[in-house]
TrEMBL record:
One of its GO terms (cellular component) is plasma membrane. Its main location: membrane. This is DUF2029 domain-containing protein. The lineage of its organism: Bacteria, Bacillati, Actinomycetota, Actinomycetes, Kitasatosporales. Belongs to the glycosyltransferase 87 family. It is found in: Cell membrane. It comes from the Bacteria. InterPro entries: GT87, UCP010361.
Length: 496
């Protein structure tokens, strides 16, 4: 495959056989003289519209539950694969009763809302726009409205996510279609509130690609205030900036992330009473719940537990050790690779590692990886293989829950079938990780770099020379924008 001009947009129908074959459904590959891109319907706007359309299809898929499955029996919401946390938590976490998250105790065992602060604020804002039920009979209608309000807000997050991915790689806007058309995105978008953190993370990566590290850090900090996983992106940035010597940029990103997280969390985190300042119990619930919850659905640990009968009470220790070892391997890979890996590649690997080693894998966690996968490995074949595995897992967990909640009838998927679904999820994610690692070790196989780019998501790292490597680095890319003439340190020696 030959590279294209540095300023020429990359058309996936020219370089990707699966994209070219799929384009026949809408008239074939786009030509060089097509009006699309110069008219109002630019690639980015088209991708945003497609994402909204897929989100709407996902809402339609939830209709059986909207019309009664959430309220009149647990089995129906599993049998129709249309479950959502949103209507259930509207009542179960006190929003229907006007309780204030983190500050007021909930009835029952949960005591406080078990979500990070920014997600709790998102949920609370949606409840302000929902008429609170006056009677028990009104609750069904209120739950439906609450789900619709959240769906509208999450649809905006989905559009932001798709637009940010389309704009991150300047010459590859069409890679955003991988996100917009992902079937797992449509199926899981309204299960929970993960799209808020996903959109903020995608916006942070866009800002980093535009060499605006402080803004990128602020957005990553806000994303971490909505979900824990975005903080992991600071790890790859640390090692990449170490290899490139871009310490100032990393410092600005880290400062922005810490400041944004504190601005959101401190007002809720710190309580004051007659005894002085202390950590508010309601704020800490998310962290204590994550630590104390047992092995749960979708995880490697549940698979082992069900097959062996061992409850794996030390799963926290095992997961933490695997995560530490995996991050160390990713760090060494970054410093040994012949060319500095792209930011999106490492971001995908570290979040995938967290998903693979975590104690629980809820179906909507796939949303964390979809934008990262589109940027790390924008190849339709590999992306669709992975998505196929995730769709099978999505169906598998609901059929398994239908089996376990259907009394003595056991209509659904038995444990052995669900274990196969878990294996498919694990293998699909590992497959995508494997091809990303191969691209890092063999950069000539990387479809982004074969198109003539270095690291379009890298911002200050794009076409920067290396300052510190552990292996035999490849020659610096042409037109290195940063660190021209700076010596490269390899095993303590200076190499000019």
């Amino acid at each position: 495959m030959t590279s294209v001009g540095r300023d020429e947009p990359v058309r996936p129908t020219k370089w990707d056989e699966v994209a070219a074959a799929g384009s026949e459904l809408i008239g074939g590959p786009i030509g060089r003289r097509a009006l699309l891109g110069t008219s109002w319907l630019t690639p980015v706007r088209l991708i945003a519209l497609v994402a909204i359309g897929m989100f709407a299809l996902g809402m339609v898929q939830k209709l059986p539950c909207y019309n009664g499955g959430w309220f009149f029996g647990a089995t129906a919401q599993y049998a129709h694969a249309c479950y959502s946390d949103i209507p259930h938590l509207y009542v179960g976490r006190g929003f229907a009763d006007g309780l204030i998250p983190y500050f007021q105790r909930l009835p029952g065992d949960m005591e406080y809302l078990e979500y990070p602060v920014l997600t709790g604020l998102f949920m609370e804002v949606a409840s302000w726009m929902t008429p609170h039920p006056e009677t028990i009979q009104d609750r069904v209608s209120s739950e439906q409205i609450y789900w619709l309000v959240n769906a509208g807000m999450l649809m905006a997050c989905a559009a932001v996510m798709a637009v940010c991915v389309a704009r991150t790689h300047r010459r590859r806007p069409w890679d955003g279609l991988l996100v917009a058309l992902a079937p797992a995105f449509a199926l899981t978008a309204t299960i929970n509130w993960d799209l808020l953190a996903v959109a903020l993370t995608a916006a942070g990566m866009l800002m980093w690609s535009r060499s605006r590290p402080l803004t990128a850090g602020v957005l990553i900090g806000l994303a971490t205030a909505a979900k824990l996983y975005p903080v992991l992106l600071l790890g790859p940035l640390l090692v990449l900036c170490w290899r490139a010597g871009a310490w100032r940029a990393y410092g600005r990103a880290l400062s922005g992330a810490v400041a944004a997280w504190l601005v959101v969390n401190l007002p809720v985190m710190i309580a004051h009473d007659a005894t002085g300042f202390h950590i508010r119990e309601g704020w800490a619930k998310f962290y204590t719940f994550s630590q104390e919850r047992p092995v749960d659905f979708g995880s490697l640990w549940l698979l082992i537990s069900q097959r062996t009968g061992n409850p794996l009470e030390n799963a926290n220790v095992y997961a933490t050790l695997l995560m530490i070892v995996g991050c160390g391997v990713i760090g060494l890979l970054t410093l040994y690779a012949p060319r500095r890996p792209r930011f999106a590649q490492l971001a995908f690997l570290v979040v995938a590692l967290f998903i693979l080693t975590n104690k629980v894998y809820s179906p909507q966690y796939v949303l964390w990886l979809i934008p990262l996968a589109a940027l790390a490995r924008p190849r339709w074949r590999d992306f669709l293989i992975w998505q196929g595995c995730e769709v099978m897992y999505y169906l598998g967990i609901w059929m398994y829950l239908s089996y376990t909640s259907d009394g003595e009838k056991h209509q659904g998927l038995p444990p052995e079938g669900y274990q196969l679904a878990i294996v498919l999820h694990l293998l699909g994610t590992l497959y995508l990780c494997a091809v990303v690692v191969r691209d890092i070790l063999m950069p000539e196989r990387d479809v982004v770099r074969r198109g003539g780019d270095d690291d379009p998501s890298g911002g200050v790292l794009d076409r920067a020379a290396d300052v510190f490597v552990l292996g035999q680095a490849a020659p610096a890319p042409r037109h290195a924008a940063h660190f021209e003439g700076v010596p490269t340190v390899r095993w303590g020696a200076v190499r000019k």
